[in-house]
């Protein structure tokens, strides 16, 4: 049975923090099934939470106030800097997710997990192929296909544990001894019993592709600037925030990584950002590209990190409308400064610190934005994205 908890905010929060608050609430407790944020006169005054049993209002109160104090209240918010705006208007009456399912284009498989069918697969591949051509033309990027698993140690070196513990997904396995294997095959344990038979946490599912690149180049001295691109499945535990094709636990990123001097990394990010925006314009899509920040969670000085990320313009996002007055981030353009170069001891020819930048395109989201704006009939898609046989 659901319990309802009302948590008042002792000090109300400004309305502009609604989104920052909303994106963290399900991570307070797995038991939360629904929430609404109360507010009036430009102030947020409380949160109503429905939960499945056990969790107490006091616990929720404490966690909510801690997250607000650490992650949200001291963020500096100002006007959002827009880098680019498409000359196209997104149309009215875009197909919603239910229609994509009715037409058999998308099949829900589990929490945050979707199967895609034709012609969406061809659309996704055609869009991706043009992104690869773009980055190879502009930077001579070399392409790799990385393994699915990522060492947990790599994520630690990247600082992922401190920044996004809520998204981590471990890959475990049975304790490696014949007693455990025999006990398991006798009893076929599940749940807590199964967990007692597992222990290994050496590997995770990768949350993004560029971390593979840093691990690949770990300890290397780069004679000249380097550009690498890879496409791969990326995994983030999005809790109950999973939604249709727009927020998945299991999705695909086309990643582009640039390593070299500070100027090389910054300028290449800028050049690719401009070219991706031009490509989106050539596909006739409405949208914009603007300064953004990451959903850092519960780490030290989180609010300050978010503010400086925005202030220093370390992250831009390409946001495309998908109907119902909503838009989603389909790509991000990130400048990491020396963070990953130092973390993985990657240096320049003279042993100097290397700077890096990356571009990550969410291919399911991009595909969703294209069918939302151009419809599900391939004959209405831009010629370069259509299947070749129509
Ligand atoms: P990020 O590294 O967080 O900037 O992610 C790169 C891109 O991956 C984003 O711009 C999205 O297009 C896509 N992406 C991130 N999280 C998800 C998700 N949960 N579901 C689908 N796509 C995602
Ligand atoms: Zn990246």
From TrEMBL:
InterPro entries: aa-tRNA-synth_II, aa-tRNA-synth_II/BPL/LPL. SUPFAM superfamilies: Class II aaRS and biotin synthetases. Residues 137-387 form the Aminoacyl-transfer RNA synthetases class-II family profile domain. This is Aminoacyl-transfer RNA synthetases class-II family profile domain-containing protein. It comes from Nonomuraea cypriaca.
């Amino acid at each position: 049975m659901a319990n309802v908890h009302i948590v008042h905010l002792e000090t109300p929060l400004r309305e502009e923090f609604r989104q920052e608050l909303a994106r963290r609430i399900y991570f307070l407790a797995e038991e939360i099934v629904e929430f609404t944020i109360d507010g009036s006169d430009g102030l947020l005054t409380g949160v109503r939470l429905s939960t499945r049993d056990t969790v107490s209002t006091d616990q929720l109160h404490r966690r909510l106030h801690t997250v607000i104090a650490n992650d949200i209240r001291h963020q500096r918010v100002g006007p959002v800097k827009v880098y680019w705006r498409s000359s196209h208007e997104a149309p009215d009456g875009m197909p919603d997710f239910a229609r994509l399912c009715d037409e058999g284009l998308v099949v829900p498989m589990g929490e945050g997990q979707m199967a895609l069918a034709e012609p969406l697969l061809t659309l996704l591949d055609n869009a991706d192929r043009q992104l690869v051509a773009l980055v190879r033309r502009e930077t001579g990027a070399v392409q790799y296909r990385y393994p699915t698993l990522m060492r947990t140690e790599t994520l630690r070196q990247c600082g992922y544990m401190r920044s996004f513990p809520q998204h981590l997904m471990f890959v475990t396995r049975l304790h490696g001894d014949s007693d455990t294997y025999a006990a398991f095959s006798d009893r076929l344990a599940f749940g807590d019993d199964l967990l007692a038979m597992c222990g290994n946490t050496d590997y995770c599912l990768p949350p993004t592709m560029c971390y593979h690149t840093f691990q690949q180049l770990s300890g290397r001295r780069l004679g000249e600037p380097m550009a690498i691109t890879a496409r791969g499945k990326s995994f983030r535990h999005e809790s109950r925030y999973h939604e249709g094709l727009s927020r998945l636990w299991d999705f695909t990123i086309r990643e582009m990584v640039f390593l070299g001097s500070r100027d090389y990394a910054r300028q290449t990010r800028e050049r690719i950002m401009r070219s991706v925006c031009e490509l989106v314009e050539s596909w006739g899509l409405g949208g914009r590209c603007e300064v953004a920040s990451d959903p850092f969670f519960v780490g030290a000085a989180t609010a300050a990190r978010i503010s400086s990320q925005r202030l220093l313009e370390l992250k831009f996002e390409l946001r495309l409308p998908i109907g119902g007055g909503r838009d989603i981030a389909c790509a991000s353009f990130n400048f990491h400064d020396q963070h990953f170069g130092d973390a993985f001891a990657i240096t320049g020819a003279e042993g100097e610190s290397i700077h890096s930048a990356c571009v990550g395109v969410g291919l399911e989201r991009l595909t969703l934005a294209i069918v939302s704006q151009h419809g599900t009939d391939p004959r209405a898609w831009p010629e370069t994205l259509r299947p070749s046989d129509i």
